[in-house]
């Protein structure tokens, strides 16, 4: 079965390091979602008794069109797919909580105060420079993090919908079953309560 990337320890440093956060999400998505067809193909066992030379005399459909046994599908969902999604949900929920919390350790807080003070003292003559009245204040890192979490949640929704449609097709699930319902049925948190 697919080996899941290790979920990093939840800490503000993980969230404020956008590279580390994105690396975890990228690795998790590439291990499970980006390779969903290959992961599901690995669940199909073409032969139990070894290679049969007569099997090459006829053309058979590709393994992508063969349904997968219900036990293999269930095992894949509960051991690989949903734990990967759960880990990403937990990390994004934690980072959303950090983004919504006060940040007394923001290293740029002092710089923003100084920039605001300089902006108030600035003399603006728009006739000489029409752009001189523009002032862009540095955003607090919590606001940048909140934006990143919103963006990654949107990406996560798209990826999960695409992955789930492949799983439904290959595992003969009802098209009315959503991935959220399936996760809750299997005892996982789909993240909908925290959005």
From TrEMBL:
Region of interest (Disordered), residue spans: 45-68
Listed InterPro entries: MIX23, MIX23_fungal
Biased composition (Polar residues): 53-63
Protein's name in the database: Caffeine-induced death protein 2
GO cellular component: mitochondrial intermembrane space
Domain of life: Eukaryota
Upper taxonomic lineage: Eukaryota, Fungi, Dikarya, Ascomycota, Pezizomycotina
Species of provenance: Metarhizium robertsii (strain ARSEF 23 / ATCC MYA-3075) (Metarhizium anisopliae (strain ARSEF 23))
Pfam family, one: MIX23
Family named by the database record: Belongs to the MIX23 family.
């Amino acid at each position: 079965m697919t080996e899941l990337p290790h979920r990093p320890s939840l800490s503000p440093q993980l969230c404020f390091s956008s590279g580390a956060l994105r690396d975890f999400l990228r690795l998790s998505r590439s291990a499970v979602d980006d390779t969903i067809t290959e992961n599901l193909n690995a669940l199909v066992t073409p032969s139990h008794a070894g290679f049969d030379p007569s099997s090459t005399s006829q053309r058979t459909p590709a393994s992508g069109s063969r349904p997968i046994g219900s036990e293999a599908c269930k095992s894949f969902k509960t051991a690989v797919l949903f734990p990967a999604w759960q880990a990403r949900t937990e990390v994004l929920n934690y980072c959303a909580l950090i983004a919504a919390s006060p940040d007394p350790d923001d290293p740029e807080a002092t710089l923003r105060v100084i920039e605001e003070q300089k902006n108030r003292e600035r003399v603006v003559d728009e006739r000489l420079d029409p752009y001189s009245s523009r002032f862009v204040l540095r955003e607090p890192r919590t606001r940048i993090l909140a934006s990143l979490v919103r963006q990654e949640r949107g990406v996560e929704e798209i990826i999960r919908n695409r992955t789930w449609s492949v799983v439904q097709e290959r595992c003969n699930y009802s098209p009315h079953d959503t991935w959220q319902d399936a996760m809750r049925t299997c005892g996982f948190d789909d993240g909908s309560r925290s959005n």
